[in-house]
Amino acid sequence: MNTTFVEKKENLIQYFKEIGEDVGNVTLFSLRFFKEAIQPPYEMKEFVKQCYIIGYKSLPLVTITGFIMGLVLTLQSRPTLAKFGAESWLPSMVALSLIREIAPVITALICAGKVSSGIGAELGSMKVTEQIDAMEVSAINPFKYLVVTRILATTLMIPILVFYADAVGILGGYMGMNIHSEVSLYRYLAEVLQSIKFSDIFPATIKTFFFGFFIGMIGCYKGFNAANGTESVGKAANSAVVTASLSIFIIDMIAVQLTDLLI
Amino acid sequence: MKQETGYQWKLGMFVIIGLVLFIGTIYFIGKQKNLFGSTFELNSKFKSVNGLEVGNNVRLSGINIGTIDGIEFLTDSSVVIKLVIKDEVRKFIKKDAIASISSDGLMGDKVLTISAGKISKIVVEDNDNIVSKESVEMDDLLVSVKKSVDNAAIISTELATFSYNMNNGNGALSKLVSDEQFGNSIKKTALNLENSTEEFKKFTTKMNDGKGALSKLVSDQRLGKVIDSSLTNVKTATKGMNEVIEAAKNNFLLRGYFKKKKKGEEKKQDEQADLEEIEMKKELKIGVENDSL
């Protein structure tokens, strides 16, 4: 009985130690990123390539998701608004929901699934197959080449993907409106633009940079620090998705709270 | 592993379109808030802004012409609102324009409405002050609604008492409504009244047609004059007759008759007096007898 309690206590302490270690490592990893990102030389070619893979290649997925979200949100909100006779508020409500919350979070989650796991698996397998070590040997800074380019690419591409998701989502909303009633595109867009304020766009855009940064950072950290052995590649990818998704929600909560306080 | 080449332009297009979407949205929102294009400012002083916020629309004749740029306290009971309005509509706003706060729909945002003045023809200038009209606040509205509701409650109570009395009371109005017998009698009365009026109508018609004696008496002016003159004649005749009778009394042929008649009357009077005396005596006698008994 006593032994089990002691074991449990030790396990708990070990668990918290691991968490503390992880947080410490991530902090160091982030600091290293900022240091390496500022210092030349810059891996521009790799950065552009990563932007292409992360941004352009994720576009179809984000477009489809955004469109469906806009459409579904319109169709789901319509009955409730119709109860109050406020169907005319549907475009503004859908646009505000998309721009402020749904498009950034959904896009970030999609990218966490697609990009973060991809980065985690890629870097993990590189680590396992000792390619990273090989890079160091051939006088290439693997951190600069692999990590900095990817984190910068996600940080810059996620916001652009969110703009697409916003636009396509609003178009999806237009289609949703036209399933039950007839609204011209001009009228719909006028209604949408009338309801949006700068205070809706800017906080939402700023938080997407953070989403992008954390998606890239978590993917890179998990991959870069994968243990030896093939199974650790899967673990790194899986852990990257889970942690990135969770961090997105936490950042979102903090961002909404800050927006609420400041604006 | 397949090496992709020529991806840069795809990435470039992706980034450009993404940024165009973002900048386009910013531009259109800015345009709505009058950030681009020339504008001018107006100020208006209100006691209460009723929840109007910075960024709400300003309307002239129902058209959005600008936005609220700032709301500041002037004193503890007055607030000054700064309006930013498109320069192109300045010519339509005169110095005596009136600003008022209203709602966009039942649940909608507040809007500031500028209504045109009546007299002035001078166009407003930048940073001018325009007069304001305080809007009806919901609280005031509720107070008046409460008053009406209270009155309605009193009226309905009175109405309930009235209708109860009407159904169960014994008053004339109640009987009129609920008592069948009373209703029938009123109906009969009404029928009789109708008949009477019919008869009266016939009577008045006959009276007016001027054929009967009474009718002529009423309506014939000539008859009236004839009667009048006849009566005058009768008056003259009776006067003459009195004189004749007086003369006859003094005439020796008829004097005896009048004297005899006078005497007869006197005798009658005496006899009457005797009879009354005997009656009295009889009564007295009876009274004495009763006393003695």
Could you characterize the architecture of this molecule?
The complex is a heterodimer of chains A (263) and B (293). With 263 residues, chain A is mostly helical. Chain A has one domain. Helices cover 87% and strands 0% of the residues of chain A. Chain A is built from 9 helices and no strands. The model of chain A has no long low-confidence stretch (mean pLDDT 88). By secondary structure, chain B is α/β, with parallel strands linked by helices. In chain B, strands 1-4-3-2-6-5-7 form a 7-stranded mixed β-barrel. In chain B, a hairpin with a 2-residue loop joins strand 3 and strand 4. The termini of chain B are far apart. Chains A and B meet through helix 2, helix 6 and helix 8 of A and helix 1 of B. Chain B: InterPro entries: Mce/MlaD, MlaD_Phospholipid_Transporter. Chain B: This is Phospholipid/cholesterol/gamma-HCH transport system substrate-binding protein. Chain B: Keywords: Membrane, Transmembrane, Transmembrane helix. Chain B: Pfam families: MlaD.
Number of helices of chain B: 7
Shape of chain A: globular
Helix content of chain B: 55-70%
- Helix tally of chain A equals 9
Keywords (chain A): Membrane, Transmembrane, Transmembrane helix, Transport
GO molecular function, one term (chain A): phospholipid transporter activity
Membrane topology (chain A): Multi-pass membrane protein
Pfam family, one (chain A): MlaE
Features:
A: 263 residues, mainly alpha, 9 helices, 87% helix, B: 293 residues, alpha/beta, seven-stranded mixed β-barrel, 18% strand, membrane (chain B)
